[in-house]
């Protein structure tokens, strides 16, 4: 059993690293909440363990982009049902459409993944059930030329973590810790579940 705050910090980091690299990890698809109380599941694309920064891919036309802009509060909820561990993260988000981080993320994506940005903007109305993609790209990988005009629709959401709430469910008694980041270091305390 985890019994020190340093072990809690290490457990969280280990789980987030796994969430980035293992698409079967429970930490791979957390719930993201924005200041307008809207929530959605997103794919964790990168976790910078040194700086405690999360990266997600998004559509620059999505409503969350305006809600987050350049520094709004963002909540991230991870839950591993099998391990009985919940991690609530709070931080500040920013959206990057241009620049080296967004360019690198776009270039590292496959054309099949990039095809999402060929379609209608998130939340746009439709006359029936739709993927939003142009019909010719349903189930088809587009070429680089097909994708070049929609690069501006791609963005990254960066979340700099400021606080963590780790909760472990146990028949022997739940455990909970809260960590805050100041000056690049985590400090915290045990709290009642």
From TrEMBL:
Domain Pyridoxamine 5'-phosphate oxidase Alr4036 family FMN-binding: start-end pairs: 32-93
Gene3D superfamilies according to UniProt: Electron Transport, Fmn-binding Protein, Chain A
Superkingdom of source: Bacteria
InterPro entries, per database record: Pyridox_Oxase_Alr4036_FMN-bd, Split_barrel_FMN-bd
Protein name per Swiss-Prot or TrEMBL: Flavin-binding protein
Native source species: Qipengyuania spongiae
């Amino acid at each position: 059993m985890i019994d020190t705050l340093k072990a809690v910090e290490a457990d969280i980091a280990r789980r987030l690293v796994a969430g980035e690299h293992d698409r079967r990890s429970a930490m791979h698809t957390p719930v993201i909440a924005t200041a307008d109380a809207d929530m959605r599941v997103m794919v964790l694309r990168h976790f910078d363990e040194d700086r405690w920064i999360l990266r997600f891919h998004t559509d620059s036309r999505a409503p969350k982009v305006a809600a987050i802009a350049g520094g709004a509060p963002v909540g991230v909820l991870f839950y591993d049902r099998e391990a009985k561990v919940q991690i609530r993260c709070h931080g500040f988000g920013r959206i990057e459409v241009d620049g080296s981080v967004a360019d690198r993320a776009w270039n590292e994506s496959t054309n099949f993944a990039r095809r999402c940005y060929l379609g209608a903007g998130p939340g746009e109305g439709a006359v029936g059930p739709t993927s939003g993609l142009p019909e010719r790209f349903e189930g088809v990988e587009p070429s680089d030329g097909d994708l070049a005009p929609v690069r501006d629709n791609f963005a990254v959401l960066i979340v700099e973590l400021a606080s963590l709430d780790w909760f472990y469910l146990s028949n022997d008694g739940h455990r909970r810790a809260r960590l805050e980041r100041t000056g690049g270091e985590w400090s915290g305390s045990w709290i009642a579940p």
